[in-house]
Design a protein that fits this description.
Layout: H1 9-24, E1 31-33, H2 36-45, E2 52-55, E3 64-67, H3 73-86, E4 88-90
Antiparallel strand pairs: 1-4, 2-3
Length: 92
């Protein structure tokens, strides 16, 4: 995950291509944008835990991780589906 709210659309695609796709020798087919506030509330809305977005800058200054996932795999899946549902999908 990258914190990109201050970047242009072109800059976001460039970031993904330079720091994700090339490292994996792949092509980006799409991206999903979601606000930090949504990430931090969706687990609570579903009756689970509050997730947190924390910077993890060893890879890139804008990189972050979502932490605080529940132990229960079915809860993780429910939250992941809810996050995907609330994300805005973009194709190149």
């Amino acid at each position: 995950m990258f914190r990109v709210s201050h970047l242009s659309d072109a800059e976001v695609w460039e970031l993904g291509n330079d720091h994700v796709a090339r490292l994996r020798n792949r092509t980006i087919k799409a991206r999903a944008d979601i606000k930090v506030q949504v990430v931090e509330t969706v687990g609570v809305e579903k009756g689970y835990v509050r997730l947190t977005v924390v910077p993890e800058t060893s890879m890139h200054l804008l990189h972050a991780n979502i932490v605080g996932w529940p132990e229960d795999e079915s809860a993780v899946q429910m939250i992941a589906v809810a996050l995907a549902d609330k994300a805005e999908v973009h194709v190149p």
